[in-house]
Structure formats: structure tokens, C-alpha cells
């Protein structure tokens, strides 16, 4: 079977950052593979290693800069990658439907049996693309999966969904399906040197909307970020000043007053 | 135009966010001059409907189908109700289960979707407040659509109070064949230690960097006579067992003293420890959200501060 893994390059702000307009200043952002997607990549690669998946294709919606990130997925074992970008995405904030329209076109071309992606992106935190995609393409789905066993012959995935409060739901999902992957599902590997070398030779297929038979109007977003600001600190914490020794000493005093270590 | 709020329950109990979603839904209905409809799907619908009949609720629609959450049932029921209830707005809890069907409802009914709302204004079109970049910033998002699905974060709206005079009606829903079947539930995180019983917790997060550095916080827990707990990344890495995890998907703890070391304070973590009597935070990032709920804070490197603190109690 064929596995499609959706990955996203996410931006993480430095400890000190400035907001310019409606986003954080580019110079204060570091880019990395989305943590949740790292677990999805690992799950896909493990399926390939177990002989269950014949091919693992990574797909991302992202600018040229994102090739570095998608190459990480290739270095970890994905066979090839598709990167979709278009001027239309530069215009603003893509909503869930815009992303789903783009991914739908990739799914139609690739015809995967299983789509894996992270539960959410660390930067925007919508947590919605996978389930919306499943609805659009007529796949079954399960969100927030933290245990996965694929029975390819039986055409079913046995998953655990991680609910709140230490309870997991056990569910059987018929394939084809979209599963959104929670952190902790597996232990994502580090790319080996050999993997990194091999990744340089793997194909990253860069597509724009026209290549996918789409136009800018198809990915028009209903959402606009109108403002961004640092939340007002509600802190009434007593910040203990001084060097490590001084602050530890004052904290020890506080803790003793509370009866700790007595 | 009316608003449809979908309630949530699990294992025989309505979840708190259901009544909070009613408050959010009422605000939206007022702004639009419409009625507030509430759906209760599955489980003990009679009992749940009574509990959901709060001030401001106009109608409750009970869909008796199964005991527990099933995304196929929820999606089908909500779509069926939207056929009969004249509602353009749908409000759904931003929970693990909410996110298992809300995006599908938005997609299937051609509504725009905004998740994890922590506030909104709806006087002149909808503007949603939500966080980005792991709670480091807030954004306002304009929604250029009269039809939308909004998922609301728990704990951000006051629960709806009082007793309402809503009509309650049972609704039968035709269910399509489902390719996803819930076969059971499993409790996780049992074992030797119950961190919920501890009076003092030393809790460690991503800032500890390496597994071998855990010795440092274990030493502090020993020196203080405290129990060691952790935030999610430590458990995801397999450095500590699941029964040590504090937060939304782990344990909710309310010790006398909670010492957060190298924990930034993501909302999922805070949900599990904000009820602690005294909260101490040690973190290098002065903007870390953990300081918003801390009573005492040290902005500094845990690798400098913790050894000094251990010495104080040696």
C-alpha cells in the first residue's frame, strides 16, 4: 500500500521576538519540521520497514525554504516528496478549506491508501486539516492517534485515540483513511548520515496550483489575521531576583515557609 | 439567525465545556438576534437535556444513539439538525472528540472553520481571538463568512447557569454505514505512584534537555521529600512513565506546592496543575506562560539554580 504523509515547516519564535504588522518578525523566527509531523513520518517509515507500505510520499504546502524541512522527511526514509506552492499562498493566511483543496488534488494524483499527518501544526494550532481532508476525499478518519497497527490484508487500522484525562479510545478504522498522529506514538529517529546523503538524490516534485489543475480562486481563504499581539501578562508572580545562589536561597526560604523539606 | 451548540459527554457525565459552549453560543445568538439550539447526542439524553436546560437555551434536540462518542453519529446528527434548525453558526467544544468531527461538519456543510477560540466579537461579522505560536501571541482573526463552525476552548467562558425553559424534542437520525468503529476504552497511567496524591511535586519539562539530566531534578525531589512529575515531552520521549504526566491528557494535580522546572506552561499542561495552592516556576524565558500562573518565579537557567536549591536543603 501507499502512504502519504502531510508535513509542514513550522515557525518557532525566539525567546525575544518583535511583532511586525500581523506576524512575528521573520528575523525572530526559526523554521523546523512540525513536531507532530515528525511522528507521522516515523509511523510511515516504520510501515515501510515492516513491509506493509510499498511507498511513502511526503507532501507539504510551503515555499522553497521548506525544501530543507521536507528533505528531513526524505532523510528519515520517505521515498519522495511533493511540495506545493503558489503566489496565491503568499497573499495571506490559508484557511482549512484552502489547504484541503490543495491536498485533495495531490491525493487524486497519488492515490494513497493511508494518509498520515500530525494532530496540529505548532505555529497555527488549528488541528483540523486531516479530518476535513478525510471528509473531502471520502476517506475514513481518526483524530489524535497515539497507537497504530495497520492490518493491510484486512484493510483496517487499529488505533488508540488519546482522549483527555488518561483515557484512550480503541477504534477500528477501515482503509483508506486519514489518521492524525499525536506526539508519543513512536520514537522519531534522527536522520542518519547515510539517510541525509540519500535524501539529496531523492525527488522533490515542486508544483504550483496550475500544475494541480487549480487556480488562486480555489484556495481563496475566508480568514484574515487582523491583529497579533503579546497577551497581557496576568502574572502576579513574585519574581525572585539575584544570581543562582541568591535566588535559590530566597526560594528555599519560601518553600520552608510552606512546610516543604521540613 | 440561530446558533446550534453541540454538547459533549463522556462515560455518563456531561463535560464542563458543554455549559461553557452554551454561554458562547448565547452571545453569538444575541448578536445575530436568533435562537439558541443545543444538541445532545448519545448517552443518557434525558438526564443530559435536563442539565443543559439553562437560561438562554431555546431548544434542545436529543438524538438517542449509542452510549459514547462516535464521530459518524455526531457528524450525521449535526448535519441532520442543520437541515431543520435555521442555524448558520455551529459551536462545538475544542476537545479531542470535538476535533474528530467539527472539521468534517464544516467541510460537508460548506462552512468556514475556526478552531480553539478563546474569545470573539460578533457585532459586525465574526472576529475570533485565538492563540498562535504555542501561546506566545494572540491573534484576532476576521471571518469573511456568515456560515461558520467555531470550536471553543474549555475554561474560557463561564458555564451557563440557571434553569431555562427550552423545548426538548427527540430526533431520529438516519445513520450511514460507518467505517470507523469504537471497540472499547483503556485507562492509562496506572502504576506504582499516583502523583495526584502528592503534597509537593517537582515537575520537569523540556528544559531539562537530556535524559541523563533527570538526575538533577530527582535529586531535588529527594532533598525536598517531593514526588517527581513531568510535562508531556518528557513522557513522549520515554524518559518517565505515563503515570508521571501532568496535564490535559495526563493527571490533574492540586498539590500544596508545585515546582515547575523547565516547563513553558502550554495550555494543555496548565489545565492539569493550575489548581495547585502554590506554584513555583524556574525557566530561562521570561515570557513563558508558566509565569502567568506562578506565585513565585525565577528567570534563570535550571542547571544553575537547581543545584543551588538542592544545596539549600542538603
UniProtKB/TrEMBL annotation, chain A:
SMART domains: ETF. Signal peptide: none annotated. InterPro entries: ETF_a/b_N (IPR014730), ETF_b (IPR012255), ETF_beta_N (IPR033948), Rossmann-like_a/b/a_fold (IPR014729). CDD domains: ETF_beta. Residues 21-216 form the Electron transfer flavoprotein alpha/beta-subunit N-terminal domain. It holds the Pfam family ETF. SUPFAM superfamilies: Adenine nucleotide alpha hydrolases-like. Keywords: Electron transport, Transport. Coiled coil: none annotated. GO terms for molecular function: electron transfer activity. Belongs to the ETF beta-subunit/FixA family. This is Electron transfer flavoprotein subunit beta. It comes from Halorubrum salipaludis. The lineage of its organism: Archaea, Methanobacteriati, Methanobacteriota, Stenosarchaea group, Halobacteria.
Amino acid at each position: 500500500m501507499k502512504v502519504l504523509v502531510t508535513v509542514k515547516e513550522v515557525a518557532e519564535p525566539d525567546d525575544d521576538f518583535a511583532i511586525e504588522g500581523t506576524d512575528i518578525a521573520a528575523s525572530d523566527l526559526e523554521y523546523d519540521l512540525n513536531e507532530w509531523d515528525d511522528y507521522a513520518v516515523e509511523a510511515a517509515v516504520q510501515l515501510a520497514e515492516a513491509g506493509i507500505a510499498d511507498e511513502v510520499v511526503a507532501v507539504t504546502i510551503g515555499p522553497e525554504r521548506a525544501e530543507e524541512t521536507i528533505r528531513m522527511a526524505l532523510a528519515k526514509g520517505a521515498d519522495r516528496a511533493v511540495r506545493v506552492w503558489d503566489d496565491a499562498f503568499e497573499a495571506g493566511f490559508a484557511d482549512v478549506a484552502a489547504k484541503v483543496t490543495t491536498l485533495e488534488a495531490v491525493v487524486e494524483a497519488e492515490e494513497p491508501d493511508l494518509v498520515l499527518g500530525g494532530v496540529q501544526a505548532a505555529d497555527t494550532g488549528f488541528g483540523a486539516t486531516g479530518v476535513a481532508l478525510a471528509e473531502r476525499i471520502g476517506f475514513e478518519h481518526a483524530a489524535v492517534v497515539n497507537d497504530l497497527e495497520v492490518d493491510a490484508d484486512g484493510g483496517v487500522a487499529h488505533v488508540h485515540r488519546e482522549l483527555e484525562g488518561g483515557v484512550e479510545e480503541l477504534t477500528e478504522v477501515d482503509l483508506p483513511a486519514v489518521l492524525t498522529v499525536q506526539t508519543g506514538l513512536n520514537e522519531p529517529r534522527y536522520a542518519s548520515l547515510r539517510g541525509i546523503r540519500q535524501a539529496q538524490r531523492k525527488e522533490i516534485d515542486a508544483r504550483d496550483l496550475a500544475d494541480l489543475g487549480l487556480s488562486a480562486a480555489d484556495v481563496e481563504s475566508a480568514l484574515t489575521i487582523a491583529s497579533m499581539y503579546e497577551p497581557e501578562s496576568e502574572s502576579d508572580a513574585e519574581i525572585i531576583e539575584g544570581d543562582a545562589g541568591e535566588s535559590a536561597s530566597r526560594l528555599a526560604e519560601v518553600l520552608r515557609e510552606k512546610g516543604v523539606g521540613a | 439567525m440561530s446558533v446550534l451548540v453541540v454538547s459533549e459527554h463522556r462515560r455518563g457525565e456531561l463535560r464542563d465545556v458543554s455549559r461553557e459552549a452554551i454561554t458562547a453560543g448565547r452571545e453569538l445568538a444575541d448578536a445575530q438576534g436568533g435562537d439558541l439550539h443545543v444538541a445532545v447526542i448519545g448517552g443518557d439524553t434525558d438526564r443530559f437535556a435536563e442539565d443543559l436546560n439553562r437560561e438562554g437555551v431555546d431548544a434542545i434536540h436529543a438524538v438517542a444513539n449509542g452510549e459514547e462518542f462516535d464521530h459518524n453519529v455526531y457528524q450525521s446528527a449535526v448535519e441532520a439538525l442543520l437541515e431543520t434548525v435555521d442555524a448558520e453558526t455551529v459551536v462545538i467544544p475544542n476537545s479531542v472528540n470535538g476535533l474528530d468531527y467539527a472539521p468534517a461538519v464544516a467541510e460537508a456543510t460548506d462552512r468556514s472553520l475556526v478552531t480553539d477560540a478563546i474569545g470573539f466579537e460578533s457585532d459586525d461579522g465574526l472576529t475570533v481571538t485565538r492563540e498562535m505560536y504555542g501561546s506566545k501571541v494572540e491573534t484576532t482573526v476576521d471571518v469573511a463568512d456568515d456560515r461558520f463552525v467555531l470550536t471553543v476552548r474549555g475554561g474560557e467562558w463561564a458555564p451557563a447557569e440557571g434553569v431555562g425553559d427550552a423545548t426538548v424534542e427527540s430526533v431520529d437520525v438516519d445513520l450511514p454505514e460507518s467505517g470507523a468503529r469504537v471497540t472499547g476504552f483503556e485507562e492509562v497511567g496506572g502504576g506504582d505512584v499516583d502523583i495526584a496524591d502528592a503534597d509537593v511535586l517537582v515537575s520537569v519539562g523540556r528544559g531539562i534537555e537530556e535524559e541523563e539530566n533527570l538526575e538533577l531534578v530527582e535529586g531535588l525531589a529527594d532533598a525536598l521529600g517531593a514526588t517527581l512529575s513531568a510535562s508531556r515531552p518528557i513522557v513522549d520521549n520515554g524518559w518517565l512513565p505515563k503515570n508521571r504526566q501532568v496535564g490535559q491528557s495526563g493527571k490533574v494535580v492540586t498539590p500544596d506546592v508545585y515546582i515547575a522546572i523547565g516547563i513553558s506552561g502550554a495550555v494543555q499542561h496548565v489545565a492539569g496543575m493550575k489548581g495547585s495552592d502554590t506554584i513555583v516556576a524556574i525557566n530561562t524565558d521570561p515570557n513563558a506562560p508558566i509565569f502567568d500562573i506562578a506565585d513565585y518565579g525565577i528567570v534563570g537557567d535550571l542547571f544553575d539554580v537547581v543545584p543551588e536549591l538542592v544545596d539549600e536543603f542538603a
